[in-house]
Structures are given as C-alpha cells and as structure tokens.
Amino acid sequence: MTRQKPTIDDVAALAGVARTTVSRVLNNVPNVRDEVRDRVRRAVAMLNYKVNVQARNLAGGSSRQIALIQASDFDNEPNSFYNAGLELGALRACAAHGIHLVTHTVNQNGATPSQQIRAIFADERFEGIVLTPPFSDDVALVTALRANGRPVVCISAGKAVREIAPSVGIDDAAAGYTMGQYVVGLGHRRFAFIKGLSGHLSAESRYDGFMRALQDAGIAPDSVRVDRGNFTFHSGIEAANRLLATAPQRPTALVCANDDMAAGALLSIHKLGLEIPRDISVTGFDDSPVSEIVWPPLTTIHQPIKTLGQNSVELIVQAVAGEAAASVPGGAPVAFRLIKRESTAPPS
C-alpha cells in the first residue's frame, strides 16, 4: 500500500491546535506564542510534513517570490559564468517549489548599494533574499535584512557573516590549499598569484590556503609574486602582463582566483611567445565552461556554482516552512574537486 502523505490537518491534530494556527506558523506570521509555535514545528518534524507550494499559491491567488542579488560594477564585463550559474541553480529550485525568482543587479561601487538592497527587500512580496559576494560579506547589511524576520541566505560568505546567517559555499581555503599542493607536487618553486576582487573574502581564502600549502612544503613566501584583478578576462590580461614583465626571474606557475582571469592570463602569455605549460603552468578556479574551451584547457578547481544557487533557495523554502535548522547560522560546505587539464605540467 502507498502511504498517504500527511496533511495540514494531521499536523493540527498532533499539535492540538487549529488548522489556521498551523498555517500561521508555517508562514512565519507574528503573534503566535512560542510554546504553540514549538508544538507545531515538532508535529511538522514528526510527520515529515511538506508544504504543497503549488496548491497554496493557487488557493491564495498570489505568487511567491525570492530575490537574488547579484553584483556588478557596470563598467566591466561580468564574470562569464558565475552569475549565470547561480541564477540557473536558483531557478531550478524555484521551479520545483512554484516560486518566482527575481534577480536584481546592484552596482557594488555605487554610492548606496546597501540602501538599494534594503529597499528591494522591503517589498513584502519577497519571502526571502539570496546575497552573493561581495554583499554576502557585509555584516551590517545582513544584520539589517535579518531583522525583518524573513530568511536571508548568503553565498560564499566570510567567517563573520557565517556566524550570524546561513551560508552556502565551498571551503575556499581548503580548495586553495589543494591547488597549492598540486603545483608544488609538480615541482614548481617560483609562483605568481592573481587575486580577485578586493573585499571578496571567500576568494581571499583561496590565496590564504595556497600560501599555507607552500608554507607546509617549506617554500618561502617571497617565492610568490602577487597581483590583483576583478574576476574579469581583461583584468587577467593586465595582471599577467604586470607579473611577467616585472619579475626578475619568471614564475613557472601562475595561479588565478577564477577561470576568467586565467583565460586572460593565457592570452597574455601567448602574446609574449611563451608556451603553456612548457614555459609556465596556469591554473584557474570555478571550472566554468570557459576553462574547457581555451587553449590549453585549464587545470582548475570545480566549484558547483549551480548547486550553490539551488541550495540557497532550498534553505529559504525550508525556513519559510518552519524548519528551524534552515535558519541556523553557518552551513556545511559543498564539495569541490581538483580538475587536472593540459595547462599544467612539471617545470621544464
């Protein structure tokens, strides 16, 4: 026999409350006593009750919405896949739950980005909001948004935000360490590193992890020349030009904080007449589609970007349904893996 799914009436009976009270708890409506709210949530957990989102939308005649906040400085090309990947993953989860995803692009270099985001979330049609870097690292912003009682989920947030809000991301420091171990294991001892956007704490962790791997291998910090880009293709060209033009002894491995900058670095190196990886190895980060179509294809860290977008929406849906764990600060990292391709080899 097929087991019948529990209904809202079953939850009400088990909790000893009215059906409307269960609905109020599931929708995070205020003015419900804590003791009653706890009884309802325990009943939901015991019965493994799931909200029928599509039916609730039809009954209410309304459309549920989640806001996804993306960053752009409007003066440079966007990251080729990161923003799109997050949006695709979030759309996948929203479609499964009958929710509309509304994406807002905010200029992180504008005069009042924090105020713009607060104004967006003031719209009560949004059941929750997903913040991407660098907004997901803004402690004051995240604190202010959480004060309104609706779920806030942060993607690839730094430690300070993870202590106050749910976050979805990989362990960037561990990923950087893995890449460091790999290039050191190939035999490289002279390095260059192109960092990403200043203030992007998870990307900074990639550099920290890389340097820790070198330290553990007994390699001095001054063996690494460092420059900074902004995650774009053109910034990778410019940073690589500076690193390779000024180095008294050319690095044998160039590590980049994302694939777009690594692709730009490849172009710069090709124009200098150097052969990759014979003269210099190059690595990226993200395993975006561009990493496979450049020549040579990039060794990189696979970050499941679409999964990050999908999981962030799932956390909001769970929080709205009254699953308390979805609102707990922190969050388990999503798995990453090293992808080895033709852009790296032992130094000649």
Could you characterize the architecture of this molecule?
The chain has 348 residues and is α/β, with parallel strands linked by helices. Helices cover 44% and strands 15% of the residues. It has 14 helices and eleven strands. It has helices spanning 8-15, 19-26, 34-47, 53-60, 82-97, 113-121, 139-146, 159-162, 172-186, 201-216, 233-246, 259-271, 290-293, 305-320, and strands spanning 65-72, 100-107, 126-131, 152-155, 167-168, 191-195, 224-228, 253-256, 281-283, 300-302, 337-339. The strands form three sheets. Strands 2-1-3-4-5 form a five-stranded parallel sheet, with helices on both faces. Strands 7-6-8-9 form a four-stranded parallel sheet, with helices on both faces. α1 (8-15) crosses α2 (19-26), α9 packs parallel to α10 (201-216) and α11 packs across α12 (259-271). The model has no long low-confidence stretch (mean pLDDT 88).
The total strand number stands at: 11
Percent of residues in helical segments?
40-55%
Question: N- to C-terminal separation?
Answer: 67 Å
Radius of gyration: 23 Å
* Largest sheet, spatial ordering of strands: 2-1-3-4-5
Feature tags:
single chain, 348 residues, alpha/beta, four-stranded parallel sheet, elongated
TL;DR?
By secondary structure, the protein is α/β, with parallel strands linked by helices.
Outline the secondary-structure elements.
Layout: H1 8-15, H2 19-26, H3 34-47, H4 53-60, E1 65-72, H5 82-97, E2 100-107, H6 113-121, E3 126-131, H7 139-146, E4 152-155, H8 159-162, E5 167-168, H9 172-186, E6 191-195, H10 201-216, E7 224-228, H11 233-246, E8 253-256, H12 259-271, E9 281-283, H13 290-293, E10 300-302, H14 305-320, E11 337-339
Parallel strand pairs: 1-2, 1-3, 3-4, 4-5, 6-7, 6-8, 8-9
Antiparallel strand pairs: 10-11
